[in-house]
Amino acid sequence: MPRLFLTGATGQVGSALAAQARSAGWDVTAPGRADLNLESARTGEGLAPLLSGHDLLVNAAAFTKVDLAESQPDAAFAANRDGPAALASAAHALGIPLLHISTDYVFDGTADRPYREEDTVCPLGVYGASKGAGEQAVRAAAPRHVILRTAWVFSAHGQNFLKTMLKLGAERPELRVVADQQGGPTPADDIAACLLRMGTVLLRDQPATTDPRWGTFHFAGSPSTSWHGFAAEIFRQAAADGRRVPLLTPIRTVDYPTPARRPAWSVLDCAKIERLYGIPAPDWHAGIARALEHLPA
Hints:
This protein is an alpha/beta fold. The chain has helices spanning 12-23, 48-51, 66-71, 73-94, 126-141, 161-171, 188-205, 227-240, 271-277, 284-293; strands at 3-7, 27-29, 56-59, 98-103, 145-150, 153-154, 174-178, 182-183, 186-187, 215-218, 225-226, 247-251. The strands form 4 sheets. The chain has a 6-stranded parallel β-sheet, sandwiched between helices. Strands 6-9 form a two-stranded parallel sheet. The radius of gyration is 19 Å and the shape is globular.
């Protein structure tokens, strides 16, 4: 029975991964914040005893409050850079592969095509900068790593755009939704399945550090859409369940100011992960349907 050490098990991806891994026969260790606070982890030495004896480490923990990060940069960098650095150091010392989740926010959104893994990062805000620094720390400390960049994560669990839309839609007759930001909504359960598949392959094949299956990969929902398009599909499916559907009005980013700037173009090229792992980009329309099944009408 393979042993998985999972951080961030209470989050959207972490909770889905813990459930899927256990169903697949994995022994899962998923410490809570009281047992493992990555914001205070500075070196891998203190983490080694916790990780010892495990076959795979997945870091699904992060400071993900994009706007709050602008006023709390120290906390964002502690969780998104220093914590992953300590985990990577400990994983490398113990010979444990590390799978680490990152984000489309490492890019500035000025591209005219889907972003590839090798494209230069240029984050617009503290959150993206802290996640980019975390990527660098993982690469430097653990040669046997996978960094999985994803985007616009949603599920029936936790806080996310889908649940916010449903809540506001039940309360208001009209919602104004940004229509000039483009990305790929990604179901958390598909991200979890992707991570589990990658981990299974890496443990089975034990590839050398020079193998292309290590490194950075993109995994985001297809086809790309805007936040307004995402909301429209949420309510199209919600209407079939008898939920209240508000009027959706498209607006520009400048009409909805936020503390943190968002990339206008967050579309990720997912060809590499399909080529090397046989994992296609997920259909976010199907992900909405699955999430709605687990939410009260």
